[in-house]
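Key idea: predict the complex, not the pieces.
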Amino acid sequence: MSFIDDAPALMASTPALEVSNLSKTYATGVQALKGISLSVQPGDFFALLGPNGAGKSTLIGILSSLVNATGGEARVFGVSVHAQRSAAMAMIGLVPQELNINQFEVPLEICINQAGFYGIPRSIAVERAEKYLKQLALWDKAHTMARMLSGGMKRRLMIARSMMNEPKLLILDEPTAGVDIEIRRSMWKFVREINEAGTTVILTTHYLEEAEQLCRNIAIIDHGRIIENTSMKNLLSKLDVETFVLDLVDSCDRVPDVPGVRMVRVDAHTIEAEMSREHDLNSLFLALSDSGITVRSMRNKSNRLEELFVRLVETGKVAA
Amino acid sequence: MNARGNLIALGTIVRREVARILRIWMQTLLPSAITMTLYFVIFGNMIGRRIGDIVPGIGYIDYIVPGLIMMAVITNSYGNISSSFFGAKFGRHVEEMLISPMPSWVILGGYVAGAVLRGLIVAVIVLLISLFFTRIHLYHPWVTLSTVLLTAIVFSLAGFVNAVYAKKFDDIALVPTFVLTPLTYLGGVFYSVSALGSPWREISYANPILYMVNAFRWGLLGISDINLGLAYVVMLGFAIALTITAITMLRRGTGLRS
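Result:
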């Protein structure tokens, strides 16, 4: 028996998260959120992206009740975060951006205590702590003081801790910041499995490759406003121009003129080709071949989502 | 809200607080034992012998035992909650509790219970030390117990309010140094207010610690400078006012939520 018993029956049609006209103005006068609205469906893996200071952490703060909204409303599975805080919080798990673990406690104790705060009996808490610490490869550190853990271990510990109430909505605020690629991939695997098991996941990250690989839907927030809210597929299809980096076998002094392609010589062995997505690559390679240029390898200059993100945020800045 | 869930959450905070008290026992339990032993040796034994009986049959060392126990209870219950809760704020792990479904009163209740327990443990330690120097006869057990509990509750609540407001470690050190210590020394621990002349006697009546020390002394020794009923009114009044203040601060998120 836990606090979740008090939550209303969850209907499949009820959004996992519904934010309506949410605003936040801090005492300093900073308007962090300017009436944003968005909806996340149950079972979704949702990316919330934005540059630093865009309002992502404020939104997450409001959802986790650490920040009081100035206006508007947020509902988790139909339960108001403000009016029915306790029932709403029982359904949320949060992995914050900043480390917030008690450095003088051991991981096992941290997880069991977290379950206790949610009214979960100790016997169940012990089982869950073992399960999630093992899944996140931390079981051998279960009795090691938290301050002795590495940065990556502390991040994984925060994920294990957030799972103790087996939340229906898991919010990950830059969970992989400063973590090496191997640990990052193991964290992706864990979160993907959690999502496949039915937990709705909201992810904020600055690693756009991470968002592109994991998330099905996306919202981009900038200057306290949602500037894009669509499916990842739709968003990526909006990318009309791509830039390729071509590594050449031999050095070249000048780049050939190819209609519809903007060619830039980066150095003797590297060319950048910016072209419309409608443009086929064959004509580019034909033109290069005619000019006696042989391409050794080719790659995208940047991640596709990254290109779109930069473009959208830049457009937002101009509009602002 | 489900009562069993609240009870589990409350128990979790209390367990964590007790574990902390025992883990750092050299900071939480030992200092009071050493300080109070010194008080008993210097004030009770060496100086006390020259002072003689305060009232017939009650020597100076007997007279100061209740005050010294209360002094330890006040310092420890206040210090426990202010350092533990502010430490949780400073280390940000207070967020573990703030994002949970726990109602405000459970958070407050858990921390207060932890601080009261430390106050009681220290009270027992000081009482046991005092037995090396004098004999204690418990005149009114229920008054003794209720007074020590109420005092611990009042100063736990005060420490909690201090911790919620505090922004840096200095802020939790200021009150014990500049408020609690002077009030305790002037609260009739070492002397009877009836020995003071006007206006110092009247001024002393504004000090809540005077009521606590005297109620406790009445419980242990059967003597008091203060009307017992009035002492309970003062203690309960402070406990209620501070509980309302602390709960309001938690609900509003003062110093905790943006």
